[in-house]
Write a structure and sequence with these properties.
alpha+beta, about 150 residues, single chain, Thiol Ester Dehydrase, Chain A, 2 helices
Length: about 150
């Protein structure tokens, strides 16, 4: 079986901690894939908020997830504290990747790596638009562009 390979940067500019809830578990009694995607969404929301942005207003554009890739590395169970690091990579004309590294805080073990391919849209027409300057600046420096 061919395995998906994701390469995340050694350093990502943002991190947040989230605890695995019992409702995040699947029938195998570990973090379900659907719950992990929800935790990634929460981490992306926190990342954007930390930069004064949101998914509905990301520097004048909204965003939509065009694709998602996850590579699981270790099992997580209820009560595990996860550190989810987030960054922006591979900026293109109308989109970019948000990249994630998920680590279990108890033992420091890498639990998952992921990326979401993001497309930016005009909120009215719902048509793709150029990557907002604030996102391009975060990708370049890890911080949003400062406005005078």
């Amino acid at each position: 079986m061919a395995r998906l390979v994701l390469t995340t940067p050694a350093s990502l500019p943002f991190a947040t901690e989230i605890e695995v809830r019992v409702t995040d578990l699947n029938y195998g009694n570990h973090l379900g894939h659907d719950a992990l995607v929800t935790l990634l969404h929460e981490a992306r929301w926190r990342f954007l908020r930390a930069h004064g942005l949101s998914e509905l207003d990301c520097g004048g554009a909204s965003l939509v997830v065009g694709d998602l890739a996850v590579v699981y590395r270790a099992e997580c169970i209820a009560g595990d504290r996860l550190r989810i690091e987030v960054g922006v990579a591979d900026v293109a004309r109308v989109g970019c990747d948000f990249v994630y590294r998920v680590t279990r805080l108890g033992d420091g073990r890498l639990a998952a790596e992921a990326k979401t391919g993001i497309v930016f849209l005009d909120p009215r027409s719902r048509r793709p638009v150029q990557v907002p300057p604030a996102i391009a600046a975060i990708a370049a420096t890890g911080h949003p562009e400062t406005q005078p």
